[in-house]
C-alpha cells in the first residue's frame, strides 16, 4: 500500500498533544488517597492512543516510551499498584519528555536521547520498585487497538515465546474466543499481539460468524511452556499453532510490523478526537523556555463551544423563517400588509444583528484556557523549590477574545513563575515571619471598566524597594541621585537586564523576563501594575482592553434611560421601607441591610435623568452592588431583564465617562451604557 | 447617499487645484467640511444620553455596531437651539486622530450642496480676538457671493476631549 502517511502526521500530532494534555490534567487531578479509576482510565486511554498512533507512523522511539508509561498506568488501573506521589511525578516527567519528543519529531529535529533514556530509567525503576516485579502491559487484542510497539530495550535480557496462532474459520462457533485466551496470556507476561488481516475477505463475502484473522503473539518473560499449552489446549484442534522460543526478537518484530502496520493505520486515523483546548499552545509553555515552539502553534484554528454553534444555527433558522415570511408578504402585497411588512423588517434587522453578535461571540473563550496550565506549573515548581504553595484560580470563566488568550499566556507564565520563585518564601522563613507555612498564589481574572484585569497575587515577601534601587544603581540603570516614587521603583523590574534574585535559578531570574512581559502586554494595548508591600506580598495586575468581550448584565430602568449593571457586581435587589433609611448629617442617605449600613446612590440624581418615575425611595428599587470592595445601593426605577451584552468601547469614538465603563447595543438597536460601580460611588461622593 | 453618487460623478471632472466641500447650514450661516471626511448623512434619531457632559454632546447612537457620539453644532457654536424634526440632519464625519479612525455625528439644520472650491479662493479665518471663537475654522471661501466657513474636522472631533485619553478601538 502506498498511502502517503505524511498527510496524517499533522492529525496525529494534534491528537497526541491533546492526549498529552489530557494525561497531564488527569495526573494532576489524581488524589493519592482515593483514586478514581475512571481518571486513570482516561489517562491510560490517552497514552494508549499515542502509542498506537506513533507505532503506526513509525515513530518507534515514542511508541517504546509510551509503552513503558502504559505498563505503569495499567497496573494502577487494575489496582495492582498503589498510586504514589513518586509514580505520578515520574509519569508527569514522562509526559513532558513525550511532549518534547513529539515536538522534535514534528519540527524534524533530532531527539534528545539522553533525556529520553533518563525518563525511561525512571519509569523502569518505578515499575520494578513496586511490589510486583514485571507485570504485563495491556494489549487489547482488538483490531483497532492492536499493539504495534516494539519493546526490545526493556526485554533485552529476557526471552519469551513467539506464538503463531491461525485459527480455523469455525473457531468461534465452538465457543472459543481468542480475546479471552489473549487475556490469559497477558497474565503470564508481557504480551504483544500482531494481527494479520490478509485472510479477511471483502465485505460482501464476509461471514460474521467465521474467524478470518490470524495472530502473531510475542510473550516476553520467563514462562513455562506448559502454561501456554494449557491456554491453547481447547483450541489445538481448531487452529494452526506454532509456539517457538524467542531468539532474535527485534528482527521478528520488525517483520511482523511491516505486515500489520498498514491496516492499523487506517483504524487509528478514524479515531474520534476528544475536544480539548488548544494544546499546541499548551505544550509550548510546558516546555523549557529556550526550546523552540512547534510550528503548529501558529496555525490559527479555534475550538468553539458547541452551544455557541447551536446558537448560531438557531439564529440562522430564525433568519430563514423571517425571510420566508417576508417573501410571502411581498408576493401578494397590498397596502393592508404594510404593518406586517414592518414587523418582518424589524425582525429581520434584529436577527441579523443577533447573528452578527453570535459570530463575534465565537471568538470569545474563557480565560481558563490559559489558567489551566498553572496548576501543573505550581505543582512542579513547588517541589523543585521545596516550597509549599497553594494556587488559587478565580474567575476562570471570564471570557476574553481569542487573540488575547493566546498572547497573554506567555507573559502570565513569567509572572506566575516569578511569584512562585521570588515571591513566596521558604516554609521556614514563612513560619518565622508569622505566616502560614503554605504560601498562596492567586490568579484572578475579572472585567473592570472596559478592561479585563488579570491579577497574579502572592502573599510572599513583597518587593524590597531599597534592594530594587540599589540594584538599579549597581546596574547603571539609574543615577545615585535619582528620586523615584514607589511606583517608579517597582517599575524598575521591567527594565531590561534587571534581576533581583541573589542567585540565578533555572526557574526565573535571568532578568530577561519582565521587560519582555511588559512589552508583550503593551503590544496587546494593555498595561501592568504592581502593588506590593514588603513582607505582605505583591500583586501584579494586567489590564487588557476588551475588544469583543461579552458580559452578563442586568438592565435597569431610570426614567426613559436603560443602563446595564454587570451581573457579577449585583449582590441583591430589594424594595426598602422607611425605617431602613437613615441620613448622615441630614444629607448622605444610607440604608441598613442586615447589619451593614450602605450608602444610597440615586441614579437619577447623579446621572441627571429628569424623566425618572421614582424619586421617592419607597417607589423604586434598590440594587445592592459591590465593586472593588465598595458596596452601595443603586436607586433605580425598575429592573428590566438579564441579558448577555457585547461590550462596546465608548472610548473608540468618544471618551471616558465617569461612572460608565462602556456601552452596549440593546436588542432594539439603541445604545445602553454599562455602569462602572466604583466610578459611580466616586461620582456620588463628589 | 445621493450626495455621494453626485460627488463621484463630479469627481471625475474636478481639477486638482480645487477641493470639494459639503456645505450645510446652521441658522443663517453656511459651513463646509471637506467631502472626504464625510462618511454618511443620516436623519436625526433619538440618542442615548450620556450623563454629566456638556449639553451640546447629545449622546451616543449605534451606527452599525459602533458607538458614535452625536454633537449639536448649533449648541457647540453657541447658536440658538432649534427643535429636532424629521428633517434635522446628522452628518457623520470621520477623521484619523492619532493613528485611529474616529467617527462622530454632528447635528446640522440642513445639508445644502457639494461645492468645488478653488484652493486659491480659500482665505484664512479672520481673527476676532476673544469675541468669536474661530478655533474650528480652517478658512473662509466665497461661493456665489455667499460666505462659507470651512471647518477643520480634526479639531471638531477633538473638541470635547474626544481623544484625550484615547481608548481602544472597537474592532468591528
Tell me briefly what this model is.
Chain A is α+β, with helices and mostly antiparallel strands. Chain A is built from 20 helices and 22 strands. In chain A, helix 1 packs across helix 9.
Describe the structure.
The complex is a heterodimer of chains A (686) and B (172). Chain A is an alpha+beta fold and 686 residues long. Among the domains of chain A are: 306-362; 366-545, Histidine kinase-like ATPase, C-terminal domain (Heat Shock Protein 90, 2-Layer Sandwich); 550-685, SH3 type barrels. Helices cover 41% and strands 21% of the residues of chain A. In chain A, the strands form 5 sheets. Chain A has a 6-stranded mixed β-sheet with strand order 14-18-19-17-16-15. The longest helix of chain A is centred in the middle third of the chain and has 26 residues, at 306-331. Residues 130-157, 259-299 and 502-511 of chain A have low confidence and may be disordered. By secondary structure, chain B is mostly beta strands. Chain B has a single domain (2-158), classed as Beta Barrel (OB fold (Dihydrolipoamide Acetyltransferase, E2P)). In chain B, 12% of the residues lie in helices and 45% in strands. Chain B is built from 3 helices and 11 strands, in the order H-E-E-E-E-E-H-E-E-E-E-E-E-H. In chain B, the strands form 2 sheets. Chain B has a 6-stranded mixed β-sheet with strand order 8-1-2-11-10-9. In chain B, a hairpin with a 2-residue loop joins strand 6 and strand 7 (100-108). The radius of gyration of chain B is 16 Å and the shape is globular. Mean pLDDT of chain B is 78; it is low at 1-12 and 162-172. The interface between A and B is medium-sized, with 35 and 34 residues.
